[in-house]
Amino acid sequence: MELLETLKILADDTRFKIIQLLISNDFCVGALARTLGISEAAVSQHIQVLRRGGFLRGEKRGYWTHYVVEKNILIQMADELKVLSIPPVNKQFICLRESMNKDNNLGGRNMCKCKCEHPEKLQGKPGDCSKKQIQECHGDENHSCDSEKKEK
């Protein structure tokens, strides 16, 4: 099962509480219902979702079924989340302004195709930039995108 699907299963408050309870103790549906203050039918519905997701397994003990958390799926989820927090070795920042070609624009907006040293000082479109902002970024008062438009 994919990480996003498993996270969606645990996103429900009641299902998350069931997992928290079952981590330390094995409970039957009746005990979970009393502890959570909800009906046995509601607990059964949540357990069904958790079982389909691979989070729980049931163990028959006499007349009742007690539920146990499959801790391996939680460990696997934690590992996948850890991977998201590790930056790639070859981080490459791609500026939309640099990646756009002359025939392409982003959502109908004209994007600057120049290599700005300080793009945070500029606005989204050359026409929105003050002369001071352009000078700080490009070293002069002419925005290279303005000259590209004039050449067309």
UniProtKB/TrEMBL annotation:
Transmembrane segments: none
Positions of the HTH arsR-type domain: 1-89
Keyword rRNA-binding part of the UniProt annotation: no
Pfam family, one: HTH_5
CDD domains membership: HTH_ARSR (cd00090)
Region feature (Disordered): 120-152
Record carries keyword Transcription: yes
Molecular function per GO: DNA binding; DNA-binding transcription factor activity
Keywords of the record: DNA-binding, Transcription, Transcription regulation
Designated name of the protein: Putative transcriptional regulator
Species of provenance: Desulfosporosinus acidiphilus (strain DSM 22704 / JCM 16185 / SJ4)
Taxonomic path: Bacteria, Bacillati, Bacillota, Clostridia, Eubacteriales
